[in-house]
Amino acid sequence: MSDLRTDRRGFLLGMAAPLFVPSAARGANDRIVFGLIGSGLRGPFVSEAFIELGAKLAAICDVYELHAAKKISADAAVYTDYRRLLERKDIDAVLIATPDHHHAPMLKAALAAGKDVYLEKPMSHSITEGVEMIRAARATKQIVQIGMQRRSAPWLIEAKKLVDEGLLGKVHLARAQWKANNARALDNSPLPGKLDWDQFLGPAPKRPFEPMRFRRWRNFWDYSGGNMTDQGTHVMDVVQWFTNCGAPRSAVCHGGIYETPGSEVPDCFTAVFEYPDMMATWTLNYTNSYENNWSVRLEGRKATMILDTTGYRVYQEPAAKNPEPSHRVTARLQNEPHVQNFLDCIRSRQQPNAPVEVGHGAVCGPHLANIAFLTKRQAFLNPQATEVY
Questions:
Q1: What's the mean per-residue pLDDT of the chain?
Q2: Which CATH architecture has domain 154-332+364-380?
Q3: 80-120, pLDDT tens digit by residue?
Q4: Domain spans of the chain?
Q5: In terms of DSSP H, where are the helices of the chain?
Q6: Model confidence, pTM
Q7: Is the CATH number of domain 23-151+337-355 3.40.50.720?
């Protein structure tokens, strides 16, 4: 197992990561009770991993009745106000899978209530929020895991070890991408069922109800960082984790809204990030599915590593003379190892594989690229990854 420490300039990240431990190795009388806040798509999916690994789902909270009515667990109580869920003394931890703009206030409220937290990515809605969330978490003894499951994937940890051992040589260019042909016009037809619109808005600007803002909240800046931070948190974390490069110094970004009428966020873009001794590109295209899904390419002086949905491959230099991979591992991502790591850390009180510092570092670059896109200029980040200028 590789050393999972990463230099995140200005943040303490050199914390030992517990190993994956199967639930069968633990006692049967230490069952963890959790609550789910946000039961749209991702929340129920990750909850299944919690339940399969022995945790008990005691309560569900959602502002939309059709989401709250999902029968993830027949015994779970249902709430529309997450603060009522947090008041329950029998709940040890919460899984927060809400729109991005709720992450900071909900994390702070959960910490204040003494709950451990599994928070879906991207961790924050802004760089400033991320800094505040780190301070809030470190002011407590609570365990916080950000839902970046690649950090607990055994095959990615193995690939990271190969890079650390020098297999690729020095990497000066990394290329991250995500492809899918799923762009479409936003649906603003009437929404079935009841929705507490005011609670959905929460800290966001007050606006008249529009169904598409709830259905496709990732397409609006009020509630998310768009496709840039949604998928960029995953792939840019792999880039920075594997190269130990910290957060970027600057970013530029170009893109457009081509096949998503009604959206505020681009469905096709390329961002370029500057680091002290390397650069990275991050391209998303939701109008074409060639090389579908995610991939990260690390181009080193000695070899190139490609990581994607099928596993990883390494091609030695020069590629023209070495067309076959020297290393190949076939694998896929699963939620269970990352959830298991969180449950183990609740018991051990060790830091998890993706603590708040990692979550912040992963999304800083995408946040910076959004600023560059919206301001149409190069955006710069200070070395501590706390301020944009």
A1: 92
A2: 2-Layer Sandwich (3.30)
A3: 999 999 999 999 999 999 999 999 999 999 999 999 999 99
A4: 23-151+337-355, 154-332+364-380
A5: 42-52, 65-68, 82-86, 103-112, 127-138, 154-164, 197-201, 211-215, 226-243, 336-348, 356-375
A6: 0.92
A7: yes
